[in-house]
Amino acid sequence: MRRTVRGAASVILTAATALALVGWGGLAGAADRTDVARSQQAPPLLVGGSAWVSVSVATLWRSPDSPRAVDAPALANPARLREWLSTMTLTQRRALNGRADTQALLADQVRVVRLRPRWAQVVVPSQPSQLDARGYPGWVPRRQMTARPPVSSLQQATVVARTAWLRTDVPDPARVFRISFGTRLPVVGEDGRWVRVATPDRVVRRVLRSATVLHRPGEPALPASTSSLTSTATSFVGLPYLWSGLSGFGLDCSGLTWLDYRVHGITIPRDALPQSRHGTPVA
């Protein structure tokens, strides 16, 4: 029987127009990032340094040997999440237990702990963990991260739809790839029903205004109220369960709780047991 987030939800009640924009520190508004962003050399990943996720969702693996052949779409850049999820059998989904532990969203900051030729061991500071005081640990393909610091902006766009398309920065924007609920990107402008955002690769993309909430960095995207937390949780009813899932493409039980609280500006532990010990008893 396919597991869904329904049970967890009840628990949470609680270069066509390639253009270098000098004013935005070398951003490129472009239909194709290959010719523009990749021509701008990013600094190398360094042990002890920061990096930022450059794909829609990066899965953190237990070791570089953990992924299987079926997991190849999740290791790519761009990550092909829907392809990955649609090709896995139920048995293969269950077998993620012990292979993958969590995920990080586009533009999330990580700290590099160790480097291998194609992999980086990282910790995610925004995901408190009993496994490492610095943040949740795991291995991520190096091609799914960049060491280039993010663009500074007075406004941030947080995705509040399950998923939303990032599109090219042209009058008739084309789809590039889907990003997840909870993804936070710096805003560089607005154009009618579109919000113009900067990716970690410093490419300007567009996302529907209706799929986002605009707010100042450091402020919550949604009000931290019981009704808003509950409404957000129940919006994921029916989404298939995914071990290690932390996105609108698939969630595990504690991932749902963590992601819900994230958009409400509240940081809680990533895993279920420390989450259960984190709150204040009310009954």
Oligomer: single chain
Helix/strand/pairing category: alpha+beta
Q: In percent terms, what proportion of residues is strand? A: 25-35%
Strand segment count? 18
Mean pLDDT: 89
Topology of this protein?
Layout: H1 6-12, E1 19-21, E2 27-29, H2 33-36, E3 50-53, E4 57-61, H3 72-75, H4 81-87, H5 90-94, E5 100-105, E6 109-115, E7 119-124, E8 136-141, E9 145-146, E10 156-159, E11 163-168, E12 175-180, E13 184-191, E14 194-198, E15 203-208, E16 212-215, H6 226-234, E17 246-247, E18 250-251, H7 253-263, H8 272-276
Helix pairs in contact: 1-6, 1-7
Characterization of the model:
The protein is α+β, with helices and mostly antiparallel strands. The chain is built from eight helices and 18 strands. Strands 1, 2, 10, 11, 12, 13, 14, 15 and 16 form a nine-stranded mixed β-sheet that branches. A five-stranded antiparallel β-sheet has the order 8-7-6-3-9, with no helix packed on it. A two-stranded antiparallel ribbon has the order 4-5. Strand 6 and strand 7 form a beta hairpin. The N terminus is likely disordered.
Would you kindly provide a brief summary of this structure?
By secondary structure, this protein is α+β, with helices and mostly antiparallel strands.
